[in-house]
Amino acid sequence: MQKFNGLSRQTVKQISAYKNEPLWMRKKRLKALSVFEKLPMPLKGGDLTGLDFNKIHYYLKPKEGIKKLWKDVPAEIKKTYERLGIPQAEQKFLAGVKAQWDSEMIYGSLLKEIEKKGVIFLSMDEGLKQYPDLVREYFGTVVSISDNKFAALNSAVWSGGCFIYVPPKVSISLPLQAYFRINAKNIGQFERTLIIADEGSFVHYIEGCTSPIYTTDSLHAGVVEIIVKKGARVRYTTVQNWSKNVYNLVTKRARVEKEGIIEWVDFNNGSKLTMKYPSAILQGKGAKVDMLSLSIAGAGQCQDIGGKAVHLASETSSVIRSKSISHHGGITSYRGLVKIGPGVSRIKSKTVCQALILDDKSKSDTYPAILAASPNCEVSHEATVSKISEEQIFYLRSRGIEESEAEIMIVNGFIKPLTKELPFEYAIELNQLIKMEMKGAI
Predict the structure, then answer these.
(1) What is the pLDDT of residue 100?
(2) Which of 55-69, 113-127, 328-342 has the lowest mean pLDDT?
(3) Last-in-domain residue among 276, 298, 333
(4) Which of 222, 251, 276 is the C-terminal boundary of a domain?
């Protein structure tokens, strides 16, 4: 198994050489490393003092290469992914599935009907090899290497992730799907995903994230860049269930052109610390963004979640809905931004934050920021915090429902807006995850 430890110019050169990348990508990686070394650690969002960059494995390659058929995947990896549901996903005829184990994709498939339409669905490494000009045109244009310290780190040592291109006016009715699995101790997973939806197209991309529990910490610092061209629509869904030793520090952003739509659906469970703020730059007239997120924080956990909408064109709109549940001393935060540029008009933006706190030890905070350089806009923000009341429990118990089941029913009612947006099998999985997480929490 190929393993590169520690962060240095030599490590970055080794990763690039091992992948046989073009010179321009190697130079970009080295430049990003220099930026990473100069940028300070984030001062907001959570405690990062326990993160030691010198102890992380920056690249870990499985012994087996990428497999096109599920039957060819090694038994050890297959057994893990069977528990996560990949074979079931294949049986439901999803348009495509990719699976990443630590640093590399190990499995990939794509329905022939989708391929015939000109859709590209590859690992990011395959995309760079097969479509270098297309990758070079868009790579780093939505999330620059100097955007933040962890985006710079990803740009220096990225490996794996997905490359998707949907041609003009092509609509994919079935979702494309990827699984990301951290399976080793002290591993850093730095996948890079690039999605390009050409004019008038539609694609739904779903990612699942998971990892086993270790006594040492791991780092997940992925970057997602989405280009939504004129009249196109992209839905990006995340179901995250990291173990509680993972620092989950990701940057996800979309650039939306005229009359384009980006939809973020985001579920965050597990991890030691998550800092995630899906963002949309609305740069074309009539562009829209709709964000819906749910985060759950238990003992020793901090979920710092938010959403950002930057309105750079007239008649653009944004809706940000954030829900959180905290228990056993867990901390949830909403950290958001709505920014309206100068010279634009007829802007509409709405932010709704709802927090459910299940005990006296837990905490929920809201940090909204609204920056409006144009007076001709409608912007609203509302936030509510609540607990499960004794009256609710009494009402349900009077109907013969056990107290623990009554509590779960109330929580499920709270999260219903999110489960309604998920494919059926994912909604079931999410409800099961929450049921396990809530067991004994109240």
Answers:
(1) 46
(2) 55-69
(3) 276
(4) 276
